[in-house]
Amino acid sequence: MEKENIAVGLDIGTTKIVAMIGKKNEYGKLEILGVGKSKSLGVARGVVNNITQTIQSIQQAVIEAEAKSGYKINDVVVGIAGQHIRSIQHTDYVIRTNPEEVISGKDIQLLIDQVNKLAMLPGEEIIHVLPQEFKIDGQSEIKEPIGMYGGRLEASFHVVVGQASSIRNVGRCIQSSGIELSGLTLEPLASADAVLSQEEKEAGVALIDIGGGTTDLAIFKDGIIRHTAVVPFGGNVITDDIKEGCSIIEKQAELLKTKFGSAWPGENKDNEIVSIPGLRGRDPKEISLKNLSKIIHARVVEIIEQVFTEIKAYGHEDPRKKLIAGIVLTGGGSQLKHIKQLVEYITGMDTRIGYPNEHLAGNSSEEISSPLFATAVGLVMNSIENNSNSAYKIELKEVVAEAPKQVVYQQAAPVVEEEKIEPVSDVIEEEINLETETTEHKIKRSFFDRYVEKIKDFLDNAE
């Protein structure tokens, strides 16, 4: 029997940690086998600040995903975010020793290695080196140089840089949770894979992923990543504002935001009031929904304006850099009422909410199709691309027996029998893009293999 290609993604966010197990079904769509979710303790603005708590949260999410799917996780592709991430544009070239030979993957790898040796600021490390366009002997706009002749091979690169210590802390947490690290992906890139179509990437689009601790931006044009940025504000700052502005506890502020909050203050009438129970027998508090919306509006405007500054820095007003497909909002913050209209008002660009359901199998639950899980779905897709065999089938009782004892459960993960899904008869035949292994994929894989090895070596030596 052929070995199943089971992929696992781990999204270490500021508000939640998600472990997602999935595989490709016969129609090339992503079938989610199990999802584990835990409250993220020990992560602030996308950066680990408490190793022990983060390990416990990871273990809890992993155990829940294993219990729901009946698979044991070996390794994961993890998302990297945080305010320490920055990106730079860089152009480099190599002179080939034998121009009579066709350009091969080795030449491109040589160029990538050269970029990897770039001098960074102290404590920084290169995470991604993404080739954008190639030039051969002055001929520009070449997307696939392999098989062509030429003496001078030049390329422009999108280089993503992050703090080495932050990345290693994430690696340490995963290893201490009893699982291996098989790959690293920048979170906005993972979200983009999950919610953007190829047509949008070609036309030009800005993806804004509003998370709990950070808001991530990824800009695509002509099918190529052009700009990435991380703004150190997210949904948690809005909750904090409500907590301070209304003098209530965080739990109540979060509920108010999700149930009654709106980013557009004109929507609420003056007499709309919500009553909140007082603490320990105190009188209940009455909060005007108009005031609530004003608090939310002020902070959301600030976040969107910061992201819009980054879009302007990319140069979207230049006709050649125009983002025809506009903006796609995803992440938990995109579920705030009327945020789409506010973003359109501030930026003047077409906006839609991005759901990761385009790549998901038709029988996926509504919860998984939510923008909340966009990054996790993207990480699983990334893991599948790497042909990883990240989990194996086991007996359900074995999963429970193997649960680490130091995990503090907030709620015991239910052991769910694997659902028997009836095959769908009326399947609409779609053209499935089975991409060949392009230069970009080869580069991504070889670079990540070496980068992950580097982190593993560092962790092993540190012990």
Strand content: 25-35%
* Widest β-sheet, arrangement of strands: 3-2-1-7-12
Instruction: State the end-to-end CA separation.
Output: 39 Å
**CATH first level of the domain at 86-163 and 451-462:** Alpha Beta
In which range does the helix fraction lie?
25-40%
| Average pLDDT | 85
What's the architecture of the domain at 86-163 and 451-462, going by CATH?
Answer: 2-Layer Sandwich
CATH topology title of the domain at 86-163 and 451-462: Dna Ligase, domain 1
**Which regions have little confidence, pLDDT < 50, spanning 5+ residues?**
396-437
Radius of gyration: 23 Å
What general outline do the C-alpha atoms trace? globular
Largest sheet: 5 strands, mixed
How many beta-strand segments?
A: 20
Number of helices: 12
Provide the structure class.
alpha+beta
